[in-house]
Write a structure and sequence with these properties.
By secondary structure, the protein is of the alpha/beta class. It has a domain at 5-92. Helices cover 41% and strands 19% of the residues. The protein has helices spanning 24-35, 73-95, 109-125; strands spanning 5-9, 12-19, 42-47, 63-67. Strand 2 (12-19), helix 1 (24-35) and strand 3 form a beta-alpha-beta unit. The chain starts with a strand and ends with a helix.
Amino acid sequence: MIPDFLLERAGMKVYMEVAGYWTPEYLRRKLDQLRGVEDVDMIVAADADHACQQLDSLGKKLDIIYFKGEVPLRPVLNHLNARESKLGKSQLESLSGRRLEFEGPAVSASKLASASACWRRSYWRS
């Protein structure tokens, strides 16, 4: 199965399948394919007028978004934000307790704050 979209950011991949009008045979084939999806983050946007209850069973492993007319952006963004937050927490946990070593010179916090304040002042004056 080849999804309609790949949404990618900072190594995070979310696939999205948009299904508008489904014939009974297309629906059967699509459900078989979607049931076989394992370990893939996928959103399925389905036209509410043509979708069926069989899609609800996929909601445990895929995010199902029902729509009328147009795919709503808010549920897609909510899914992406939740996924990004979960990934960030996972990455933070993997760094917990690790000792970080720097190569080369480091900038002190006071120099960074000073440079940041200068930039802000000059930015707002122009």
